[in-house]
Design goal:
The protein is an alpha/beta fold. The chain has helices at residues 11-30, 35-54, 57-60, 63-67, 116-132, 153-167, 186-200, 221-239, 256-267, 290-299, 307-310, 342-350, 366-374, 382-385, 388-402, 408-432, 439-457; strands spanning 72-81, 87-98, 104-110, 138-144, 176-179, 248-251, 271-277, 280-283, 315-318, 330-332, 355-357, 378-380. The strands form 2 sheets. It has a 7-stranded mixed sheet with strand order 9-8-7-6-10-11-12, with helices on both faces. A 5-stranded mixed sheet has the order 1-2-4-3-5. The structure holds NADPH dihydro-nicotinamide-adenine-dinucleotide phosphate.
Length: 461
């Protein structure tokens, strides 16, 4: 049982626990073999027991039974032709999980590992994350098992056009607003926006976020998830009278989230000594040269191993998991789900890690989270720590609706305020429900309550 240490098992607590366990059994039965989805549900359910004990009205309204069932799950065929004229068929997904507080909002992931379980875990988490941002956005997620690695620009364009041809039937600025995620960056969003516009015959800027700044995108969106993660960890450290200054930091991944987490952590005086991609990690004791990483990954689309050709004191180690054996004060997992397993967590703790900020979605297993909490490591869970990306996506939607553009400084200031609010609301909820300092419980409860209250107000739908 993760993160919940009950002190007094009152009758209310026992009832709440039984309710949560029953719904969890139902989730497992109905969604067999969807392990990532089970894991995400379990983490949230365990946190919510004190809420149901205090407010049984949520049980009476069947809130959990309704929340775990997506409002809509769409799967579709994505046929496309490669540069040699060969036909390929991928599978596309969009889960429209919950629209109680706003239009569905959540990224699109293109990665061979994508399946219904991955999309549902991401979509489920997104409900609570979006609620935590304080903005009017519901939860959704999507993607495809398409692998963008090694594809030409033309192949990427043909695939994304085919993907959008079907997806366009289900999205819109007031219904569902996708964005990027793993494998979906500025290039893919550009092609998808072009195809959507062509199909609709109208310029609906608010249908996608993460657009280029020249055609409706927001300044600061590219940086938002990485910067936001660092701002969140900064708040955790500040509460302990500490900061990033002089700290050694390890950040996994070398994509969108990692790049801007490296940038902000460095700006705040830390030394980031390692980052990775799916083939391995680099260790540079002098501190990572971010210009090289950006050029290799964003422009040349090469492997991170090439870094050591230009920085000869750095080392490349094959296998991305080993990155957590590097001693550090702060670890920011920013690559993918379940990248910190219990053995990695043990190494991090043994090496004296002080704080973890989850830039990726669900990067730590439930056992790893428990170990961090038991050892008083400051722990910023994904739905709170990485919510800066979707928060700035909502700011992009607001700018599109108002047909205006804010400056980078204006967006960055709003992002910092949002991350502070998320931190404070999570701390307060954890305290109110008897688990002071536990941000896993705090973030889950703070995100849940707003959505649950809206669902009750709107009736059984
Ligand atoms: P990118 O595709 O830009 O980068 C992903 C990085 O992680 C790459 O370096 C990639 O390596 C590595 N990676 C991907 N899959 C694996 C794997 N199975 N094992 C090891 N490394 C892997 O994605 P993002 O930076 O956008 O996303 C990273 C994480 O952050 C994801 O969990 C995503 O859901 C989450 N997130 C992203 C947001 C955003 O705004 N982009 C918002 C909130 C959360 P390689 O180059 O070899 O593929």
């Amino acid at each position: 049982m993760t993160t919940l240490q009950e002190t007094k098992p009152t009758k209310e607590m026992l009832n709440a626990k039984e309710y949560v366990n029953n719904v969890f059994e139902l989730v497992k039965q109905r969604n067999s073999n969807e392990n990532e989805f089970h894991q995400a549900v379990k983490e949230i359910f365990d946190s919510l027991v004190p809420v149901f004990a205090k407010k049984p009205i949520y049980m009476e309204h069947g809130i959990l039974e309704r929340m775990v069932e997506p409002e809509r799950m769409i799967t579709f065929r994505v046929p496309w032709v490669d540069d040699n004229g060969k036909v390929h068929v991928n599978r596309g997904f969009r889960v429209q999980f919950n629209s109680a507080i706003g239009p569905y909002k959540g990224g699109l992931r293109f990665h061979p590992s994508v399946n219904a379980s991955i999309i549902k875990f991401l979509g489920f988490e997104q409900i609570f994350k979006n609620s935590l941002t304080g903005q009017p956005i519901g939860g959704g997620k999507g993607g495809s098992d398409f692998d963008p690695k090694g594809k030409s620009d033309n192949e990427i364009m043909r695939f994304t056009q085919s993907f959008m041809t079907e997806l366009s039937k289900h999205i819109g600025p007031d219904t569902d607003v996708p964005a990027g995620d793993i494998g979906v960056g500025a290039r893919e969003i550009g092609y998808m926006f072009g195809q959507y516009k062509r199909l609709r015959g109208a310029y609906e800027a608010g249908v996608l976020t993460g657009k280029g700044v020249g055609y409706g995108g927001s300044l600061g969106r590219t940086e938002a998830t990485g910067y936001g993660t660092v701002y969140f960890v900064q708040e955790m450290l500040k509460d302990k009278g500490d900061s990033f200054e002089g700290k050694t930091v390890v950040i996994s991944g070398s994509g969108n989230v990692s790049t801007y987490a490296i940038e902000k952590a460095t700006e705040l005086g830390a030394k980031v000594v390692a980052c990775s991609d799916s083939s391995g990690y680099i260790y540079d004791k002098n501190g990572i040269n971010l210009d090289t990483v950006k050029r290799l990954k964003e422009v040349e689309r090469k492997r991170i191993s090439e870094y050591v050709n230009e920085h000869t004191e750095a080392e490349f180690v094959e296998g991305c998991g080993g990155i957590w054996s590097i001693p550090c004060d702060i670890a920011l997992p920013c690559a993918t789900q379940n990248e910190i397993e219990i053995a990695d967590a043990k190494l991090l703790v043994a090496n004296g890690v002080k704080a973890i900020g989850e830039g990726a979605n669900m990067p730590s297993t439930l056992e790893a989270i428990d170990l961090f909490l038991e050892n008083n490591v400051l722990f910023g869970p994904a739905k709170a720590a990485n919510a800066g990306g979707v928060a700035v996506s909502a700011l992009e939607m607001a700018q599109n609706s108002a047909r205006l553009n804010w400056t980078f400084a204006e967006v960055d200031e709003k992002l910092q305020e949002i991350m502070k609010d998320i931190y404070r609301n999570s701390v307060n909820a954890a305290e109110e429900y008897g688990h002071p300092g536990n941000l896993v419980i705090g973030a889950n409860i703070a995100g849940f309550v707003k959505v649950a209250d809206a669902m009750i107000t709107q009736g059984v739908i």
